[in-house]
Specification:
With about 260 residues, the chain is α/β, with parallel strands linked by helices. It has eight helices and seven strands, in the order βαβαβαβαβαβαααβ. It has a seven-stranded parallel β-sheet, sandwiched between helices. The radius of gyration is 18 Å and the shape is globular.
């Protein structure tokens, strides 16, 4: 399928590895030029060069902390006008409700709610002016089924989901869509960190912890960044113009629900 986005320009955040990189590669495969962002300059530039060589698209790498005002300004200045925005930021640390202070919640909100909102506020006006745009926010399955040890993430991402629900309906008439992708367990560094914590807590090996969690997924495995990226690319496609304000769950069937 030709997704009709060749020659478009996309800003993909936290894209040096993991799900962000999966989205960037899927867009590059469709001929989309990229602005990639991550905090680590070395890993980011390696990813940018690999994508340039593999897909032949223009790739600009901007090493900065997208969750800070200064970092966001640097990325947006380098990006200029974009047709596609993919927001993404690492999730806050796990714990229990007794562990967190007000400062912990503010930090989580800054990273996982207020940063994507600020990016949308910066990019949406030009998209609306041109009559075409796509925004995909990488959130979490926790907005549909909360995860006890990820209360900071549950809170921040639920707030973003509420913002998107209202805003998506306000901009759709201008040819701009906003949707959220909700990853379940995928084979990323984040999954390794969570599995490592579970292994330590339960006194088992990392491989045992990973196998135990994979067994809770109906498909019997973790998702891949490539699968995730392909879904992102479709939401950003010309054919995705009638998908508005949706929360699309990619969890291998792990959440047991009818709707």
């Amino acid at each position: 399928m030709d997704m009709g986005i060749r020659g478009k320009r996309a800003l993909v955040c936290a894209s040096s590895k993991g799900l962000g990189r999966g989205c960037a590669e899927a867009l590059a495969a469709e001929g989309v030029d990229l602005i990639l962002n991550a905090r680590g300059a070395e890993a980011l530039e390696a990813t940018a060069e690999a994508i340039r060589k593999t897909y032949g698209v223009a790739v600009t790498a901007v090493a900065a902390d997208i969750t800070s005002d200064e970092g966001r300004a640097k990325v947006l200045a380098a990006a200029g006008e974009v047709d596609i925005l993919v927001t993404n930021a690492g999730g806050p640390p796990p714990g229990m409700w007794t562990d967190w202070s007000r400062d912990d919640f503010i930090k989580a909100l800054d990273a996982n709610m207020l940063t994507p909102i600020a990016l949308m506020q910066a990019c949406l006006p030009k998209m609306m002016e041109k009559g075409w745009g796509r925004v995909v926010n990488i959130t979490s399955q926790s907005v549909k089924a909360p995860i006890a040890v990820l209360g900071l993430s549950n809170s921040a991402r639920a707030g973003l989901t509420g913002f998107v629900a209202g805003t998506a309906r306000q901009v759709a008439g201008k040819g701009v869509t906003i949707n959220n992708l909700l990853p379940g367990i995928h084979a990323t560094d984040r999954a390794d960190a969570l599995d490592g914590g579970a292994a330590k807590q339960q006194g088992i090996s990392l491989d045992e912890a990973r196998a135990k969690r994979a067994a809770t997924v109906p498909v019997g495995r973790y998702g891949t960044a490539q699968e995730f990226g392909a879904t992102c690319a479709f939401l950003c496609s010309a054919q995705g113009g009638y998908i508005v304000g949706q929360n699309i769950l990619l969890d291998g069937g792990a959440m047991n629900a009818t709707l």
